[in-house]
Write a structure and sequence with these properties.
single chain; 14 helices; alpha/beta; 400 residues; binds magnesium ion; binds adenosine-5'-diphosphate; 17% strand; Rossmann fold
């Protein structure tokens, strides 16, 4: 890999600024799901084991006014981290100034410090000034001055140029990827730039409009592109099929036609659907082939589509999956997503990658994530990466 990683750094005795993704769900000061903190442990532990002094920065939620701050303090996160690491973690309730600087200067090798939510800097003196989110050059420079080296392990914000990722990196002699970031670059980056063929993309989810960039980029790279989920029915409409009350983007039908023409038999659409009378798990539902009848909406792919997709996928060496095959949140419409996920788990010779917020949630909720090669830690970031865009957070990491 062409990017510097944490393993390339000399960490002993160094003040190691680390941008991590601690953007966990939090309500009334209680953390809902600490997956992201757990995921960050590997890089943090590596740094402290090597004698580094870890100074952790992360954003948490969005801050637009002063009153948003208390509920989005990093304090509970620092406490949870301390439990998970089973050692003390210093929490500093500010993002700049002597209190922070003194705490950093007081660290010993192997110590861990968490500073307050980086987005506290988005509101200063009651004004929404976006110093963090707008990558204020002074802020990035200031934070960089607090450390000796920088490790970026926050893939989830890699598609944004903020002071705490790009700002720090551009003011540091060395910026390296942490293990999570390295894995994202290795799997998503490789799949997009240099995939092992046959390369099959599976694209689903709700809307064509959200996925145009991904469809176009992957059509140019993949051997087959499977389409499922809600966007199927805009493609059906483009082919002159009936779609009943299914999800459709009328203003994207022409675009869907263009994509169909361009893609030819590279694009594989579902041949049957689970259709329901209402958007409701308990609604009357059945399986139909082809056209969607009046009074019904298609909420999942049907069993023949699953078989068709398995046939397309069986010899794949690289599979990238974004977008569920149906409304997986409702048990009666989760089967298509579940069966595609289970089948991917059997492809032991293939690299299987899942990206996208809801897609990641779907494979985890359905329990099919364990046998896949890589489940991305970023939602929006993985989509932009799959679109073939340069992500500023990755671009700002030093080359080897
Ligand atoms: P991701 O976040 O992984 O990029 P999307 O946000 O594009 O995925 O799509 C996820 C949503 O698509 C889910 O909430 C799911 O319920 C919805 N969806 C999938 N299939 C259908 C369908 N046939 N009709 C309506 N919604 C659908
Ligand atoms: Mg989504």
């Amino acid at each position: 890999m062409a990017k510097l990683t944490v393993e390339d750094l000399d960490l002993e005795g160094k003040k190691v600024l680390m941008r991590v993704d601690f953007n966990v769900p939090i309500k009334d000061g209680v953390i809902g799901n600490d997956n992201r903190i757990v995921a960050a442990l590997k890089t943090i532990q590596y740094v402290t084991d090597k004698g580094g002094r870890a100074i952790l920065l992360s954003h948490l939620g969005r801050i637009k006014k002063e009153e948003d701050k208390p509920a989005l303090s990093m304090r509970p996160v620092a406490e949870r981290l301390s439990n998970l690491l089973n050692k003390p973690v210093t929490f500093v309730p500010t993002t700049e100034g002597t209190q922070l600087e003194d705490a950093i200067n007081g660290l010993n090798n192997g110590d861990v410090l968490v500073m307050e939510n980086t987005r506290y800097e988005d509101v200063v003196n009651g004004e929404y000034v976006k110093r963090e989110s707008g990558n204020d050059p002074e802020l990035g420079k200031y934070w960089a001055s607090l450390g000796d080296v920088f490790v970026n392990d926050a893939f989830g914000t890699a598609h944004r140029a903020h002071a705490s990722n790009v700002g720090i990196a551009s003011n540091m002699p060395q910026a390296a990827a942490g293990f999570l970031m390295e894995k994202e670059i290795k799997f998503i980056g490789e799949a997009v730039d240099n995939p092992v063929h046959p390369f099959v993309a599976i694209l689903g989810g709700a809307k064509v409009s959200d996925k145009i960039g991904v469809i176009n980029n992957l059509l140019s790279k993949a051997d087959k592109v499977i389409v499922g989920g809600g966007m199927t029915y805009t493609f059906y409409a483009a082919q002159g099929m009936t779609i009943g009350n299914s999800l459709v983007e009328v203003d994207k039908i022409d675009l869907a036609k263009e994509i169909l023409d361009k893609a030819g038999d590279k694009l594989v659409l579902p041949i049957d659907s689970v259709v329901a009378k209402e958007f409701n798990n308990d609604a009357e539902h059945k399986i139909v082939e082809g056209n969607i009848p009046d009074g019904y909406m298609a909420l999942d792919i049907g069993p023949k589509s699953v078989d068709l997709f398995k046939d397309v996928l069986k010899d794949a060496k690289t599979v990238v999956w974004n977008g569920p095959m149906g409304v997986f949140e409702m048990s009666n419409y989760a089967k298509g997503t579940l069966e595609v996920g289970e089948f991917l788990g059997t492809l032991t010779d293939a690299t299987t990658i899942v990206g996208g917020g809801d897609s990641t949630a779907a494979v985890q909720q359905l329990g099919v994530g364990d046998r896949l090669t890589h489940i991305s830690t970023g939602g929006g970031a993985s989509l932009e990466y799959l679109e073939g865009k340069t992500l500023p957070g990755i671009a700002s990491i030093s080359d080897k």
